[in-house]
Amino acid sequence: VIVRKSTATVLHEIAELVFDSRSVPWLVLMCERAMTDPEPQLRAAAMTLTWHLAEHLPNAFLGDARKGSRALRRLPSRTDPLFAEVYLLQCKLLPVATRLAEDRSPAVRLAVAAQCDRLCNALGDHWFSVIIDLLQALIGDTDERVRGEAMLCMPRLVDSVLSGTFSSSASSAATNVLESLLPLAMKLIKDPSASVRVSLATACGELLTLLVGLTSQEEIFQAPGDGSGSVGVELSSDSEFLADLRQQKKHIDETLIPLVQKLLHDTDPEVTSAALRAVTNASRGNVREISSKRRSGRTHSMSFDDDTISVSSQFSYASIERKEPVFIPVLSENQVLRLLPTLSDLSENPQWRVRQSAVEIVPALLGCTHLLETRSEIAKLCIQLMDDEVDAVRRTAAECLCLGGGSLARHGEDDGGQWISAIVIPQLRKCSESQNCKQRMLGLKMIEVILLNSMCPPTKNKARTVVTDSDGKEAAIPPLKAILDIAGSLSEDRVVNVRLNVGRVFAGIGHHPVLEEDELNFIVDVVEKQLSTEQAKEKGRDRDVVYFAKQAISVVRSRTEDTSLSQDDASLSLASTATSN
């Protein structure tokens, strides 16, 4: 067995280095022998060898050994004389995968289910229907692991078919794959295995991302050209493709959204959480990645550089690219409205992890909305869970409410500042005035999240929020000033943990560039007053409050000193320049 395993490893390496068509029949024979091996692990390895060899078949006829094995060639066109030779070899490889899909060992069938999309990519569009039938059988397998893996493979297979759409016949195949597999997916919603339903929820999220991304892809294709005329030619050749896209997108409203809604009501919390993650990920679909796949397919080139963009700064007010957002809103306004009642029900679920997952979706949903009424309903979900009995749920709800403004800024509008002024600051004020010390501490946490993630526009921005003073007079001030005032009002709180968190938050945000000289001076005044008050107490003085207050003063003063030094250096530079002139 050890020798055969070593041989299988070597065969995989040889398959990558095939540049002579005379060696291919021997490798096909090795695949056929591996699928009859008595060891299940080696039969499973035969599936990997099969798609690996199929992927490198064109290199055996058209490849250049000097470019290496990673320079994969595409299949020759049907009019090419070499196409018949490659096709006949594929006819020998496909039965290997078909037989392995019917293997008595679940481990072997699992390997086939996990790699159907790879085989689809390797064999080309003329084998789409056969591989779809193969996956259909695996989705209905008797083993729950095989069913789950087949479901996870389904979005990848659909993506492979869509990426291989170069003609009207292939476009029809892309539509057929959805119509063939989605009815089977619907049946799995009642599967007795929770792990299969989790896989179903994950697959639905990936399909939502893919299919709704086609809408934005269609808009990209219909964008005006640069005057060269190349875009117009491309659009005219894609008219049938775009018509098929519109046909495919009907599955979103008719199948996928209802399916996800049913999964959100599943009795198993793991399934519910997976469905929530699916909607969240779908709402952040990276359209550029989908578009890059389509464009790379159009030019028949294989690219190994992933054109993805980091999501780490997607919420930042300062880093949002407003003219051309990286993340295009995926769900429509109506689709979001359909999900809200379900999310409201989940916010009252007895499982605290489900409640937490229900609110984590808020920033993503806000990026898909334009109507104030819809945004207000989404905000209510966060506000409701900010009073939850579990600390983790409260913190998550508060953070998502604060981060929502970054999602609104993706529309190319200046909605982020309005969200902070109209939604977040009133809730902040409510927390700071609460009789519950946990709510007051939660308000400080919100201030930290807002400023560290650049959710609040700087003072020089035109955004304003209305505040009412002790005399009942209203005034319009910058949101940043209103937020700092709320934090400062808690510096003399009767609860020690609240007072020490004021200094801790100020120390954490003191280095942030959104704070200018006036804001830094305000922080120093507040913390110095807190420090003097705390030190004046003969009894009850808390050393932690003193420590964080001193830390905040140190951070802010080092920042102001650095600013003044840089200004002095600039003045000296200007003076020396004037003297030399």
What does this structure look like?
The protein is mainly alpha-helical and 581 residues long. It is 69% helix and 1% strand. It has 26 helices and two strands. The protein has a two-stranded antiparallel sheet with strand order 1-2. Helix 8 packs parallel to helix 10, helix 10 runs antiparallel to helix 12 and helix 20 runs antiparallel to helix 21. The longest helix has 38 residues. The N and C termini lie far apart (86 Å). The relative contact order is 0.04. About 13% of the residues have low confidence.
What would a concise description of this structure say?
With 581 residues, the chain is mostly helical. The chain contains 26 helices and 2 strands. It is 69% helix and 1% strand.
Binned, the helix content reads 55-70%
Q: Radius of gyration, rounded?
A: 30 Å
Distance between the termini: 86 Å
| Overall strand count | 2
What topology, given as strand order, has the largest sheet? 1-2
Q: Given the structure, what is the number of helices?
A: 26
Write down the overall mean pLDDT.
76
Structural class: mainly alpha
